[in-house]
Amino acid sequence: MKVKFKGRRKFKNTVFKVFIILLITIISFGTTFKVLYSGIKVSIDNKTYLDYLVNDSFSKFSLSDFANLSSTEFLLKYSFGITNFNTGLENIELSTPVASEVENDVETNIKPTVYIYNSHQTESYRSDFAESFNINNTVYLASHILKEYLGNLGIGVIVEENSIVDVLNTNGWKYGSSYKASRILIEQAKKDNPSLTFFIDLHRDAASYERTMLEIDGEKYAKIMFVVGLKHDNYAPNLELANNLNDKIKEFNSELSRGVMQKDNSGANGIYNQDFDPNTILIEVGGQYNYIAEVNNTLRVFADVLYEYFEEQK
C-alpha cells in the first residue's frame, strides 16, 4: 500500500510541476508579446494607406454583396467605406437638388469649392481580379480618390453621385447626349452650393497601354491629358487654364502629361460644358488598360498641382 501511495504522490507532483511550467510559459509569452506590441509604432502616410486600400479592396467582403451591389458601389464600400450611393434621380428638374452637398467641416469650416463629375460615368479601368466577379474600377472611383487627396490638402470637394444614365433614360436621350445630361447636374450643383468655383469632368481615354502608362523611379503612373472644346466663343480662359495645369504637371515629369488636346472639328462635341465656367476642365486620366493603382499615383500628383494653382490664385 505504501508503494502505491508513494507512486500516486509522485505522479501528482509531476503533474503539478508540468502545470507550473506551462503557467510560467504562458505568462512569459503574454508579457513578452504585450511589451513588444506596445513598443511597436506604425507610421503610414496617406499615399501608402490609399495604395493599400486600392490594392487590397477585396481581402474582406461579404459574398452577398456580389449579388446586391453594382460594381461602383462594391468598390466604394470596400475601398473607402462609402455605403450610401444615389442610384438615380427622382426628378431631374433644375429645381430638384441633384448633387450631394458637402457639410462644412466643424473644425476647419471648409466649404466645397471643387466639383468633380463624370459625363461618362461608366468608363472603367483594368482590373483582372475584379473581372472574375464582373466588377470594374470606374472613373467614378477615381473621382473619389481625387477628392480624398484634395481633402487632405484642405480643399472642399463635391463628387457627383447621381447617375448620368438615369438622366439620359429619363429624357429619352442616347449616350451621345451625356454632356447634355451632365450639364443638368452641374447647374444644380452650383445652385445648391454657391461656393463652387472649379469644375472637373474626369474621364479615361481608350488609347493603348503604351500610350497611357509611364514608369517613374519604379512606380507606374497613368498619363493625364486635357481636352478643351473650341466650339464656343469664350473658350480662351478654359484653354489658358488647361495649359497652365499642363505646364505644372510637366514640371513634375515632362512625360506624365499627354498635353492639351483642342477640339473644334464638326465631329467632336467641341464644348464639353466648358462654356459653363472659365474654371471648367476635362481631364482624361489613363486609359482602359491602366490599373486603378496607376490612376491613384497620377491623381496624387494632380491634386498637388491643383493645390499649387489655387494658392497662386489667392
SSE topology sketch:
Layout: H1 2-39, H2 46-55, H3 63-68, H4 71-80, E1 112-117, E2 124-125, H5 128-131, E3 137-138, H6 139-152, E4 156-159, H7 164-171, H8 178-192, E5 198-205, H9 209-212, E6 213-216, E7 219-222, E8 224-229, H10 236-252, E9 257-263, E10 280-287, H11 292-313
Parallel strand pairs: 1-4, 1-5, 5-10, 8-9
Antiparallel strand pairs: 2-3, 6-7, 8-10
Helix pairs in contact: 2-11, 6-11, 10-11
Account of the protein in words:
- The chain is α/β, with parallel strands linked by helices.
- It folds into 2 domains: 1-41; 46-313, Aminopeptidase (3-Layer(aba) Sandwich), CATH 3.40.630.
- 47% of the residues lie in helices and 16% in strands.
- The strands form 3 sheets. A 6-stranded mixed β-sheet has the order 4-1-5-10-8-9, with helices on both faces.
- Helix 10 (236-252) links the parallel strand 8 (224-229) and strand 9.
- Helix 2 packs antiparallel against helix 11 (292-313).
- The radius of gyration is 27 Å and the shape is elongated.
